[in-house]
Write a structure and sequence with these properties.
mainly beta; Immunoglobulin-like; 2 domains; seven-stranded mixed sheet
């Protein structure tokens, strides 16, 4: 199960209140993404030619997980493909040391939306004995939801690249595609302005190799830039294509930069969340020979997630005397937002509140106002911006946000002073409303 604190979209509920006329506790975290199923499927693996052994026909056990099982059209969903048990094993009698495996693969979409998602894993593994089984490994990638309805995700072909003495590949394909469905998400029909998407023909290649791409959702006739990314920074590897009358694009991009971690496409002079796609995972396999007497040193900076935590789940607001017309006040529990994605996208933290229900009466949600405050932890690439003071209500308002940028991220703390405008002759008793915070 994906942890609620590590999903891309978090929903927290806080119960507001005071005594006499007041809000008392209780709160809940929204449900996390559902658990995915392990699936078994027949796999045909081709060991490196140098191993001198025939193809291997075996069974792969794998599962697909996502960070959001209920997205809306236009949302970006992060997909993790975990090979629990590979069909192939170390094709050599040589013991393989730790951190020399780089897995890549594809995830097949079906149902309301079809296509393939390229996924890639970090260069990280436990030692593998000669002819021993490969350890479990995970690969991640993203896709943009373009159609409402049930979307199935099935594990696809995968490649195990090892970088030790020689650069070797063990290529494993699904014998009878598609493999069984491991995860299903249900997308809501709420299309935003941006449904641009990009898919790659391969998740890896050597320096200077072309990678094919297709995409859609662009403005008909627009010039679209397709470019490599190294983390959040765009590389010099790029090409331009023209979107056809249906907004689709296709072509190939030659990738030279060894630090490439993905590819994006966008309209305009630079990538933006309004006119660009999410990043399609891609890895350049450095097969440059190491000079005699030298050692090649590599490391990986792994991207994290967008998450939030709140310091409490209840607020006891001040008591108000019957007939006084005074406001009931309190302070929202501090909310800490951690953006460790290392990409170009900012975030927005919004809140909305229900009516305050009491003994045979209610206080309208529109009577709750807040005064937001937001601080940024030192050395954070982004700067937090507090939302405007004013009514929260059932329609909602922004508590805090950060803008898009070349490199975003950091740690932030959002707070707010709360004020509930209680009508003077509201019947005595305890009133409770639920304030829901959503991070996107």
């Amino acid at each position: 199960m994906v942890s609620p604190r590590r999903s891309r979209r978090r929903r927290w509920a806080s119960l507001l209140g005071a005594t006499a006329l007041a809000v008392t506790a209780g709160g809940a975290l929204a449900c996390p993404a559902g658990a995915a199923d392990n699936v078994d499927f027949a796999t045909h693996c081709i060991p490196p030619a140098i191993a001198g052994i025939p193809p291997i026909d075996g069974t792969t056990t794998a599962k697909i997980t996502v960070d959001n099982t209920s997205p809306k059209v236009g949302d970006t969903v992060t997909v993790t493909y975990t090979v629990v048990k590979a069909a192939a094993s170390n094709p050599t009698v040589i013991d393989l040391p730790a951190d020399i495996m780089t897995p890549t693969g594809v995830v097949a979409l079906g149902g309301a939306q079809t296509g393939n998602i390229t996924v890639a894993g970090p260069k990280k593994n436990d030692p593998v004995p000669g002819n021993g089984a490969f350890p479990s490994f995970s690969m991640t990638g993203t896709f943009t939801v373009t159609s409402p309805g049930a979307i199935t995700l099935s594990p696809g072909d995968y490649n195990i690249h090892t970088s030790y003495i020689l650069e070797l590949d063990t290529v494993c394909t699904v014998t009878n595609p598609p493999a069984p469905v491991s995860e299903t998400i249900t997308a809501a029909d709420n299309p935003p302005a941006n449904t641009r998407n990009l898919a790659l023909g391969s998740a890896s290649g050597g320096p200077g190799d072309p990678v094919g791409f297709t995409g859609g959702g662009f403005t008909a006739g627009a010039t679209v830039t397709v470019a490599g990314r190294s983390g959040s920074v765009e590389t010099a590897d790029r090409t331009t294509v023209t979107a056809d009358s249906s907004g689709s694009i296709s072509g190939s991009l030659v990738v030279h930069d060894l630090t490439t971690t993905g590819v994006v496409a966008y309209e305009g002079s630079a990538w933006s969340s309004d006119l660009g796609t999410s990043t399609a995972a891609y890895v350049v396999i450095d097969d440059t020979p190491v000079p005699e007497g030298s050692q090649k040193l590599t490391t990986t900076v792994r991207a994290g997630d967008l998450s939030m935590e709140q310091s409490g789940d209840s607020v006891a607001m001040s008591t108000v005397d019957f007939g006084s017309g005074d406001p009931s006040t309190g302070d929202l529990n501090a909310v800490t937002v951690k953006d460790y994605r290392g990409g170009p996208a900012g975030w927005s933290l919004t809140g909305k509140v229900t009516d305050f229900s009491g003994p045979g009466a209610k206080i309208d949600a529109g009577k709750l106002s807040w005064t937001p405050v937001c601080t940024t932890k030192a050395d954070s690439p982004s700067t937090c911006q507090a939302g405007s003071s004013g009514v929260v209500g059932s329609a909602g308002a922004t508590l805090a946000s950060t803008p898009d940028g070349t490199l975003t991220g950091g740690e932030f703390t959002a707070k707010a002073g709360l004020s509930l405008d209680v009508p003077a002759f509201t019947p005595p008793g305890s009133y409770a409303g639920v304030l829901t915070l959503t991070l996107t």
